[in-house]
Amino acid sequence: MPLDMAANVLSNTRLSGDYNVLALAAPDIASAAAPGQFVMVKTGERLEPLLRRPFSVFEILKAGGRTAGLSILNKRIGPSTGLLFDARPGDRIQCLGPLGRPFVPVAAPEEAWLVAGGVGLAPFVMLAEALRAKSTPTRLYYGARRASELFFLDEFEKLGVQLILTTEDGSRVEADPERGRRARAPETGRVTVALEQDLRDRPKSTGAMLYACGPEAMLAAVARLAAAHGRPSQVSVERVMGCGLGGCYSCVIPLKSKGRAHYVRSCIAGPVFRGDEIEWQ
Question: Pairing state of beta strands 208-213 and 233-236?
């Protein structure tokens, strides 16, 4: 069962003028969370904003060998995310979770290819940690509009994840010869272009599970590429959610069912689905 609590803000790390990572003292929720699950949050106990907003659990925070809380990756877009961007240590955040169906990590010798667009990076820190525990070779295809919006690269490298970066404007992340970063130069364009190239070059006999999170158009492209190249895929969909518990039906998504779409609530049937079971529109 999900837990509902008022969590103190432990820290607010600004990554840019619009992105931040908010650390919350919610150890009981964090201890129960699995990669790909989410929490519903809103600031304080005020009436506005009325509804909570869904956020993937970004990190599980440890202190003194114990679970101390969790973090969320936020992009300031509207009033709710603006309040989260401006939150200060000691502020109270209403937090409900963990919610939803998580990713299923594969084990070696199978490989894991993670595909993230923008804030779609959020569930992949936990997933990369779970894959490392299974000794699964992992790579991350990570796309953003510009190089300044590619975050947490060092953390993924520490987890042994191979990075394949793309930027829409062609900007580049500074090279780091000591870490060996940018062994492959960042590409210009959408992240699925780099993915498609590697799928073409990779023998089908080499098993690889594709995991994706980001804009729906990207998820659809990843699912179609996976199917075309005989690969399985798991995608985490982004839907507007009013409650996160299946009561409001605001987050429905169509699944394939005997030639016609069958709608399910992504907050309880997902947010993680097999890429080939969604009726992409």
Answer: parallel
